Amino acid sequence: MPGNRPGPDGSALRDRAVAAFDRAAAELGRAPSAELARALLRGQRNRLLCTLRLALVGRVSSGKSTLANALLGCYRVATGVTELTYNVNWLRYGEAPGLAVHFRDGRPSQHRDLAELERLTVRARADPELAALLGAIDYIEVREPNPQLHDFDLIDTAGLDSHFVADSANTLRFLGRADADVRAATVAHASQADALVLVFARGLGRAEADLLADFRDAGLSTATPITAIGALTKVELYWPERDPMAEGQRVAGKIMTEAGAGRLLFELRPVASLVAAGAATLTDEQAADLAELARLPPRLLAERASLGPLFTRRDYDDVLVPAARRQTLYRQLSGYGIVLGCELVREGVDSPASLRQELTRCSGMPAFRNLLTGHFGNRADLIKLQRAMTALQEQQQAVRESLPPRERLQLDTAIAEVTRLGFAEHAFAELAALQSYYDGRLCLDQAEAAELLQVTGEHGLSPAARLGLPASAPPAAALARARERLAYWAAFAAELSQAGPSRRAGQIIQRSYELLIQELEREGHVRAAPGPATGVA
């Protein structure tokens, strides 16, 4: 993911943060007694350099694993309702495919072949030895050269459920696990993430309010619209009574307003993730089967596909696709996905590659990926740095207690080298303005609110993106737009009728445009010219 904002001197945020960590380490010196403090700084510095960690959080069977597969564009995580265990899968980029099993009891991790992943994530009632292994797992780390994992580590958590139905509870007991273990594992791993996707299954009712309460009660209440996005999954099940994506959009809007999700999430998007995951792995033979099914009259096909399992078992005189292959298609795409695929074929989508692409587009997954990349990716380093500073401050007192008085002062000075970035970096002021906006404390009209998001990097970090201009815009046009908007926000901030938070947000946006103008001029796009005097710190 992108996310390295340039500073006034042209340096990248990550480089400035790493330099601050290095100065902090130098402050500690080499005294043996300061090793714990050095380890604290070293851990957070290394974390800053790692890929953004994105956790999928929701109830058991809410569609998290299917969403993970859809995001990756391949079948990687085992999915299902009744056959799965309740472990965490942590997916990371690696040139050499493989997996490592990490255990709750502290025993050394076991490295295994990637082909064993499904065996390690399904029930094993007939194999007590394997069941004992599964019950001891903390999480499974999966590495593979998937290009999507260049952008983020993906943590597929177990579930926030605190009570399970009888079948699931029986499985947990068989594995030597308690109900609370699943929730505790989810909270522990979600707490290690930089950003969250809260996964809702389709529907609107008490379950959504309960999930939001679970989300807050689980110790994840620090999540904000800056670091959390929602996915409404299983929208395929709205079919055939309703159009899945349209109904999903309606329900998502109600959850954001009536269930109060808008205070936690930047946005809640409906995604037909089963269709997306199935489309990514659609074979040429399956595409041909869809083309054959598309010969049926649309209404007749929809009636039959709506029968669910019956459609996959019955023999039809007018259907040449065997029942076994229809069953595979149904499991992979759902009845809605089959009907959608056939509709695309009738519209002229005539190659397997184009059919995969169009099914994926209709699922809403490309737009969802873009939302993740834009909202989280453009602020990736900033989000990670904010977490690092918080972690340093939270652990500072515990480390101080292990040090003699002189080295306590050195530790305080060292940590201040990093935490002062919260005051020195304008991007943190932009985050504060965004949080005030999400909290409903700013008096901005729709256009002004959209500009706040835009100039702070929601749609990209290039000058053109932050100015709302096409990438091909002439340099002079970019500078003229920046100066025009600077003048607008300088007047906004000077308006005495503005409430305090709105005035401060106006000053922050004003400063954002000042820095943007400096960036344009520094890059030599155009010769510097006088703009309005501001003097905002």
User: Beta-strand level of the residues, as a percent range?
Assistant: 5-15%
Q: Which spans have pLDDT < 50 for at least 5 consecutive residues?
A: 163-175, 525-537
Radius of gyration: 26 Å
Overall structural class, as computed from helix and strand content, comes to alpha/beta
Q: Determine the mean pLDDT.
A: 86
**Which outline best applies?**
globular
Q: In which range does the helix fraction lie?
A: 40-55%
Characterize the biggest β-sheet: 9 strands, mixed
Rounded to the nearest angstrom, the distance between the terminal CA atoms is 30 Å
What does this structure look like?
With about 525 residues, the protein is an alpha/beta fold. The protein is about 55% helix and about 10% strand. The protein is built from 23 helices and 9 strands. A 9-stranded mixed sheet has the order 4-3-5-2-6-1-7-8-9, with helices on both faces. Helix 1 (about 15-30) runs antiparallel to helix 2 (about 35-50) and helix 19 (about 425-440) runs antiparallel to helix 23 (about 500-520). The longest helix is centred in the middle third of the chain and has 24 residues, at about 325-345. The radius of gyration is 26 Å and the shape is globular. It starts with 12 loop residues before the first helix and ends in a 15-residue tail after the last helix. Mean pLDDT is about 85; it is low at about 165-175 and about 525-535.
